[in-house]
Design goal:
Elements (H helix, E strand, L loop, with lengths): L4 E5 L6 H12 L2 E4 H14 L7 H10 L2 E4 L3 H5 L5 E4 L2 E2 L7 H10 L3 H14 L5 E5 L2 H5 L5 E6 L2 H14 L6 H17 L12 E4 L5 H20 L5
The structure holds cytidine-5'-diphosphate (CDP) (2 copies).
One cytidine-5'-diphosphate binds next to helix 1, helix 8 and helix 10.
Length: 238
Amino acid sequence: MPKLTIAIDGPAGSGKSSVARRVAATLGYLYLDSGAMYRAVALKALRNAVPLDDDARLEGLARESHIELKPPTSEQEAAGLKNRVFLDGAEMTYEIRSGEVAQAASRLATIAGVREVLVAEQQRAGAGGGVVMEGRDIGTVVFPRAELKIFLEASPEVRAERRWKEHQEKGETATRDEVLEEVRVRDQRDRERKVSPLVRAQDAVLVDNTAMGIEETARLIVMLAREREKEAASGKSA
Ligand code: CDP
Ligand code: CDP
């Protein structure tokens, strides 16, 4: 079967990483989390005290950064880790997951120069096909010709509840309301920014998984992917 490019976009906590990882594992595809790249540059900016309104320095930071996404070891995978992130050779898998880094990432994701650098990296990483990439602009900008595009949605309350539970499991103290506010602010910024805002590509399949589990959502996407693989094999366009 031909190997597809699958783009999964959607707001924070909609289940992109969990679902994309499972879909990739089932199909034997590579899973790539583009958000981890924005988070890695954001972490570097925070650590180097680069002001989040200094667009030129942030673009420079993105340009000089070396970010690698690697699959987890089998033990890490069993513990629920979706991928490993290395920044300039040092592992930052856990450090990039804080609320502070998420907010900083969504701020620097509004800068065209930063996006240009990371989009080029993402296109290189997924160039061979057989890849499930998730983010905000994968179906619209990074891989506009992806054979299968999914726009994953869930209600803001459910998305915030999912994120809050993750924070709780890590022993963090943020309240439900604080997490809901963090998710709300970030969504609004991601949807309203001028460059590559979070929008559903016209040809993306809208999947609302407010009331669906990860497994069920992944199964639906795998079904769609298998159909597209068959269509690609027989030369029909989707
Ligand atoms: O990547 P994204 O921010 O879109 O979401 P995620 O990190 O995959 O999922 C956020 C949390 O919601 C994780 O703890 C998932 O286990 C959980 N989740 C869920 O309970 N049910 C779903 N249908 C999707 C995700
Ligand atoms: O996991 P979650 O959905 O909370 O966020 P993420 O996918 O790790 O992305 C963090 C931030 O990076 C987002 O809020 C976006 O501002 C930005 N991002 C983006 O602009 N474009 C992408 N393709 C991926 C992430």
